[in-house]
Design a protein that fits this description.
There is one protein chain. The protein contains 13 helices and eight strands. Helix content is 45%, strand content 15%. With 317 residues, it is α/β, with parallel strands linked by helices. It is globular and about 75 Å long. It has an eight-stranded mixed sheet with strand order 1-2-4-3-5-6-7-8, sandwiched between helices. The termini are far apart.
């Protein structure tokens, strides 16, 4: 009996030491990731939303355009840095860091499609204050569509850049996804797994394999910005990552696409996986949707070919 107690005591002490060491490692990783300060916060505009402060920038004059970044590990408004200045020559450009991302506050809540729909609608209503054109990248296109369906009076035209496949959005969280979310939310050890998943090498490999047409010349500043964004906010930085990959942000938008009568324009990168099929899906849901394919680009045409992206935006808006 005494022997078992000694073993248990030893295990508890070793576990406590290991937990403390991992906690320190997590702190060091998070602190070192933001040393380059790629995500500039000189223009300190924050919209005080009900669950946290939302960072945004405002540039230019003219009809308003809201830029919404993709939901990726480390995603932020930095995604638009190659086009926002040019757009601001003719528009008032609002570039937002969604809650839980980039420079915005990162509360440890469950992030769903509805959360972001409410943020987008409230931001347009309370900050922009008039009907707005929207450019939404990647998965955030589903937020824009649902927000437009919920409060159509706030939206003009919508441009979707490589939006998600409609079939994928129908997948709801199952037991596996719920278990994954629960595990990643565990303090210290869940955070360690998250830091491994968003290490500098992991982010670079992810971009080379999935995001870029030319994998041999990645934009290092972009990679640094994503690496920093994935670690800002300490352990709560993992919340958006966790909810996205556990499918908590999924929602079927087919009926919304059929219902809204706003002009919708899709830009696909020519090398995007299943890009042509995805555009066809959206057109089947709403035949009035138009679109184009930009050659020699993949998931980020506005990063890889800003000139032709701006040309299409100028035609549409």
């Amino acid at each position: 009996m005494k022997k078992n107690r000694n073993r248990l005591a030893t295990f508890v002490v070793l576990f406590a030491i290991a937990t403390f060491i991992i906690h320190v490692i997590n702190k060091i990783v998070a602190a070192s990731a933001i040393l380059k300060e790629m995500l500039d916060t000189d223009r300190r505009n924050y919209y005080k939303w009900r669950f946290g402060e939302v960072y945004y920038t405002k540039k230019g004059k003219g009809s308003p355009v809201l830029l919404i970044h993709d939901i990726l590990p480390g995603g932020s408004g930095y995604e638009w840095n190659k086009v926002e200045e040019s757009l601001a020559l003719e528009h008032t450009v609002y570039t937002i860091d969604l809650l839980g991302c980039g420079r915005s506050e990162k509360p440890g809540i469950t992030y769903t499609n509805f959360v972001y729909v409410q943020i987008i609608c409230d931001f347009i209503r309370n900050v922009i204050g008039e009907k707005t054109d929207v450019i939404a990248s990647g998965f955030s296109g589903s937020f824009a569509v649902m927000a437009c369906r919920n409060e159509n009076s706030l939206f003009n035209k919508i441009m979707l850049v490589n939006p998600p496949a409609l079939g994928n959005l129908k997948h709801m969280p199952g037991k596996k996804e719920k278990a994954l979310k629960y595990f990643l939310e565990i303090p210290v050890f869940g955070t360690l797994v998250y830091h491994i998943a968003v290490s500098r090498d992991s982010i670079q490999n992810f971009f080379i394999e999935n995001m870029l047409f030319d994998p041999f010349h990645p934009d290092q500043n972009l990679l640094d910005a994503y690496y920093e964004g994935a670690h800002r906010g300490g352990s709560h930085a993992k919340a958006v990552y966790t909810c996205k990959f556990a499918k908590y942000m999924n929602i079927d938008i087919v009926q919304s696409l059929k219902t809204i009568d706003n002009s919708i324009y899709i830009i696909e990168g020519a090398a995007e996986n299943n890009g042509g099929a995805i555009m066809e899906e959206y057109r089947n849901a709403n035949p009035s949707i138009e679109g184009t394919v930009l050659p020699r680009t993949k998931h980020f045409p506005h990063v890889e070919d800003p000139e032709h992206f701006l040309e299409q935006a100028g035609i549409f808006f």
